[in-house]
Amino acid sequence: xxxxxxxxxxxxxxxxxxxxxxxxxxxxxxxxxxxxxxxxxxxxxxxxxxxxxxxxxxxxxxxxxxxxxxxxxxxxxxxxxxxxxxxxxxxxxxxxxxxxxxxxxxxxxxxxxxxxxxxxxxxxxxxxxxxxxxxxxxxxxxxxxxxxxxxxxxxxxxxxxxxxxxxxxxxxxxxxxxxxxxx
Length: 183
Prior knowledge:
The protein is α+β, with helices and mostly antiparallel strands.
């Protein structure tokens, strides 16, 4: 990703990246294909999720999960400025979001939301994060999706995830900001 990073469109590559794929999915086939005579185009047209978080229960090193926050989450850059335009709507403009986030010189951002919002609008990407769907278990699906609270995987991330700061007030969140700041 670093070799083909679209610096001209989004700014310098983040210092710290997490991976939504195992280490063996490393892009080596691009060079192998090119050395075999293929003409590769649009190598900088990669897909980088700006809504990625560390998996608290990883399957591989630097294992990441994409969060799928709903529209009610407020999205801020590292300096505390709300992302502007459609870039501030999760999933709507990944390139614009990445550009705004990286313009701060930091490689992270913040979603701010309430327990009510996390229960109604927050989901995680990945089959292991959606066992009710992947196991096709109707009873589990009804319990997880229609029951009280957030889904079990979301609650597990909230409780164990290094990228979550949980507080009962905005002041408490601000006080914990420096000690809980992501790497």
